[in-house]
Design goal:
With about 270 residues, this protein is of the alpha/beta class. It has a single domain, classed as NAD(P)-binding Rossmann-like Domain (Rossmann fold, 3-Layer(aba) Sandwich), CATH 3.40.50. The protein is built from eight helices and seven strands. A seven-stranded parallel beta sheet has the order 3-2-1-4-5-6-7, sandwiched between helices. Strand 5, helix 6 and strand 6 form a beta-alpha-beta unit. The longest helix has 29 residues. The protein is globular and about 70 Å long. The termini are far apart. The structure holds nicotinamide-adenine-dinucleotide. The site of nicotinamide-adenine-dinucleotide has 28 residues, from helix 1 and strand 5.
Amino acid sequence: MIDLSGKQGLVVGVANKRSISWAIAEAADRAGARLALTYVNERLERNVSKLAATLTQPPLVLECDVTQDQQIEAVAASLEQEFGGLDFLVHGVAFAPREAITQPFLETTRGDFQVALDISAYSFVALARAVAPLMARRGSGSLLTLTYLGSERVFPNYNVMGVAKAALEASVRYLSSELGTQQIRVNAISAGPIKTLAASGISGFSNILSVYRAHAPLRRNIDAGEVADAAMFLLSDAGRAVTGEVLFVDAGYHAMGLGEIRNDSQ
Ligand code: NAD
């Protein structure tokens, strides 16, 4: 069992109880961490506050639309005031305008490209910059983001999100290099498909789940609790020598070239 007692963490990306970030928040709470959660806008505030009330240690609940630099600064200021320092950040934020994941990739507009990259990749850099001084005060830290194999391979309807995830994973490596001297580690978990609010925007998602089930080495899908368990490793001292890494939690799907094939004689 991972122990996060005495650690303080910020979790960005909870929308509802299906959010991967919520599974990570619950696991971190069970492991003894003190948390701050954020919500993107007033519409989601009630959801996040209700979920927050179910945790063992009442978390700070703060507004943070990651496209707004002032809101990111305000979150860092609240953390400084209430927590004094920070041990980990979970970044589970992604967004692409609907047209960008329904139209052919070739038709992606400049505006949609910018929005997807801003919210899904740049926000990790902006949050890292805001919280790094709070981690430096604690002598170390762990930054964790969530990504998908669509960064490296083509998945139908993933389109500009794949480009955003490629930028996000490259950001993990550049940030790990610059923040390493302060003992701040930077990693990503590349999760297999899970039915969440964000996933509901990808058409054919149920088919994607069944392809994974048929071809992943473990012959099954994964759930958010399994991502959370891997996250506990990366956020805790157990992962203290791991940085610049993309850890796949996808029942092994990424390792496959072809799935099962019939022999010629069949
Ligand atoms: P989710 O919809 O629960 O989480 C996405 C979050 O992004 C929401 O909380 C939403 O409020 C937040 N968000 C969007 N725009 C924002 C903004 N401007 N400011 C702040 N927050 C904003 O879905 P999820 O599947 O839990 O997604 C979490 C992360 O996991 C994403 O990065 C997603 O790409 C990644 N991921 C998901 C899957 C999957 O199959 N569900 C697989 C691999 C990776």
